[in-house]
Amino acid sequence: MMSVSTPKEVVNSLFDAYVRHDHRAILALYHDDATHDEISQLKTKQGAAEIAVGMQKLFGWLPDVHWEVKSMIVGRDGAIAVSYVMHATAPRKNGATEAKTISLRGVQLVEVEDGRIRHSEDYWDAATFQRQIS
User: Fold this and answer.
1) Which residues, including other chains, have CB under 8 Å from residue 56's CB and lie 6 or more apart?
2) Is the pLDDT of residue 120 over 70?
3) Which 8-state DSSP code applies to residue 5?
4) Could you give the CA distance from residue 66 to residue 18 in angstroms, rounded to a whole number?
């Protein structure tokens, strides 16, 4: 992985790793003891390894998942807010013959410290997601 220094470069590298489905790059971007909060699920992942494994599972469940970054707001303190739309095809279930398209808006807040992510939290609407995959 190339050396990144500014918070914006770190976050751009994170979303690039999401698009490439590169859980190893995601692992390297987080501090070993970082945390990630999934606000809609009331869950916290502890540590870079758990965060990367979670993303690896998502990539396996939604093989065509990709993120479209809409805007990025850079704070003075290394915090960045990213507005995105996640696109994917929902797995077929209950005998469905047509694949369902997922288009989910969200905001991810990322705190960068010393060139790596210390904390991130993701905000998206769980009800909208459930409607789209059902």
Assistant:
1) 23
2) yes
3) -
4) 7
* Residues near 59 by beta carbon (within 8 Å), at least 6 away in sequence: 21, 23, 65
Instruction: Work out the pLDDT band at 91, boundaries 50, 70, 90.
Output: confident
The total number of structural domains that make up the chain: 1
- Residue 114 belongs to a domain: yes
How many other CB atoms sit within 10 Å of the CB of residue 27? Answer: 20
Residue numbers of the domain that contains 119? 7-133
Average pLDDT, the chain: 92
Residue 1 forms part of a structural domain:
no
Whole-model pTM: value is 0.90
10 neighbors 117 (Cβ within 8 angstroms): yes
CATH code, 94: 3.10.450.50
Q: For position 94, what pLDDT does the model report?
A: 64
127 assigned to some structural domain: yes
